[in-house]
Amino acid sequence: MKMYGKNVKILKSSINIATFSELVMDIIARYKRLNIWNKIGFWGAVSSIVGILIAIVFFCVSQGGTYEIRGDLSQIVEMLREELSIKNEQVVFLQRQVTRLGALTPSERARRLAKQVPDDARPYALALKAIAQKRFEDAHRFLDEAQEQKETELAEIYRARGETEFYAGNYVNAEGWYKKAIYLAPDDHVTCLEASIVFFYNAKYEDAEPLMRRTLEIDERSYGEDHPNFARDLNNLAELLRKTNRFDEAEPMYRRVAEIVEKSLGPYHPKVAGAYNNLALLLVATNRLEEAESKYRLALAICEKSLGPDDPNVATCLNNMAGLLSETSRFAEAELMYRRALSIDEKSFGPEHPNVANDLNNLAVLLRKTNRFDEAEPMYRRALAIDENFFGLDHPKVAVALNNLAELLRDTLRSAKAEPMYRRALMIHEKSFGPDHPNVAICLNNLGELLRDTSRFEEAEPMYRRALQIDEKSFGPEHPNVARGLNNLALLLASTNRLADAEPLMRRALNILENSLGPDHSKTQKVRKNLELLK
Q1: Number of domains observed in the structure of the chain
Q2: C-alpha 250: how far from its chain's center?
Q3: 213-228 pLDDT per residue, tens
Q4: Cα atoms found within 13 Å of the Cα of residue 337, Cβ hemisphere only
Q5: What is the Cα–Cα distance from 231 to 89, expressed in whole angstroms?
Q6: What are phi and psi of 106, to 5 degrees?
Q7: Is there a domain that residue 25 lies in?
Q8: Would 404 be classed as within a structural domain?
Q9: In 17-97, at which residue ranges do the beta strands (DSSP E only) sit?
């Protein structure tokens, strides 16, 4: 019964209907994760759950409580507020290794809680309900009413507005609201943490870093250096350092995170797998592929053992492992993992979920790499349709799906069909993130490549130069993304017979990659070959 100790503590003098329903859902989820359904059968599991619930009710009554199933709206609202908090989207354990922003959407638990908020509740509660249900215009309308009625503190209203824009994919707007919230509540821990994550997604690393360090200091004072909250904050800071090419600073933080979560949660907890996964991302970035592979395989084994073979987190681990196998040209093994991940997510979420779109995208990338374009294209198109239906036509996820499909169309000499997709993706990213975000630089580089392929050099050059400027500003002058921009611009200059201008750019790109990725990395070798062709 130890597994349910936490739930008994929630139930004090009465059994709140929200808490009770959450308890039931939590027990069912635990049974699924531990594969108990298959071990004792459906009716055995049902009998076991009923027995546990009766025992909890008896315990509450025996302690002098009353068995009263009632709705406590204030508690539901508080639970919903906590569940919607962007700190639950921290820069993330078990992130998928795909070159796209993760699917950020209100959780299933938030949607369940939202159903318990009555339609005649106060405006702030109705706003949270609308956010959970992705009715973002309604959310802003209710927040207007809550602000007018001074129902809660203004900083809290601004935070909720920021969450609304964040889940809607309007990250620039979210940033504006969080700046206002920080101004009003500069020492509020949750506001600082959420704002740092929004700044991170907007590639405002200089703004995000001091907030991340502040939340780390606060949690260190509050919980100590061995607490999971401290590990969460340390992981976020390490992720920022990795993004900005400070691998030597990030690596000991990732390793420390792994130690903390393993010590506090046990060696087979999913967050331990997440810590190893994030460390592996750094190892891949620094070309230590053997150690990265061992961490990915360990993360997969932990998830399978702790959650069962069909859990969505297992699908994430499979995607990550398959990504490394694909990068090292082990396509057959990678394909099996991608297909298994797709099967798990379709079974877990249904065929129209963003996680399924992620899986389709990953598998399609592999098929495109192995020149199986006819198989890849319908997967790209299905992923695009899922994301458009789930997120709307102007969401960054849709921009990524458009870019992926355009890449295939360009590979199959259909540039005329690819170009409007590239331009639409660029427009979406500029609207969502602003004109100076790295995602905009990716779109500019891709569109520049198409324009160079079609000999429109005068149109391509300003796009390459703008992309290079964005990456240098975002990541610093020695980042691999900057090397990519230098390589692309140098190739264009060579195409227009400006070899004297092209060669120093290519040399700089090679130096960056040799220093950051090592001389034997595939990207380094490619740029070295390009430099030789310029001579």
Answers
A1: 1
A2: 19
A3: 999 999 999 999 999 8
A4: 23
A5: 14
A6: -55, 140
A7: yes
A8: no
A9: 66-70
Distances from the Cα of 348 to the Cαs of 90, 262, 312, 387, in angstroms? 23, 27, 7, 17
Give the integer Cα–Cα distance in Å for 97 and 517: 18
Q: Whole-angstrom Cα distance, residue 480 to residue 486?
A: 10
Chain-centre distance for alpha carbon 303: 18
As beta bridge partners, residue 16 has: 70
Rg of the chain over Cα atoms, rounded to whole angstroms, equals 25
Q: Is residue 47 in a domain?
A: yes
Where on the phi/psi map is residue 497: left (φ > 0), alpha (ψ -120 to 50), or beta?
left
pTM above 0.85, yes or no: no
C-alpha separations of 282 from 97, 134, 277, 334, 508 in Å: 11, 34, 9, 20, 23
Strands 14-16 and 66-70: parallel
Which letter does DSSP use for residue 467 in this model? H
Q: Compute the distance between CA of residue 106 and CA of residue 23 in angstroms, rounded to an integer.
A: 20
> How many other C-beta atoms can be found within 10 angstroms of the C-beta atom of residue 222?
11
From the list 173, 224, 211, 218, the residue with the least C-alpha distance to 91 is: 211
Distance from C-alpha of 135 to C-alpha of 142, rounded to nearest angstrom: 11
The answer to whether residue 299 sits within a structural domain is no
Amino acid identity, residue 527? V
* Domain assignment of residue 58, given as a range: 2-71
- 16-75 pLDDT tens trace: 444 445 555 555 555 554 555 555 666 666 666 666 656 555 544 444 443 333 347 788
- Find the length of the chain: 535
* Residue 372 phi, psi (nearest 5): -105, 65
Cβ-contact 128, 157 below 8 angstroms = no
Residues 6+ apart with CB under 8 A from 489: 461, 464, 465, 468, 505
Please report, for residues 29, 35, 40, 204, 238, the alpha-carbon distance to residue 310 in angstroms, rounded to integers and kept in the order given: 13, 9, 17, 37, 30
In which band, very low, low, confident or very high, does the pLDDT at 91 lie, cut at 50, 70 and 90? very low
Q: How far apart are CA 133 and CA 112, in angstroms?
A: 10
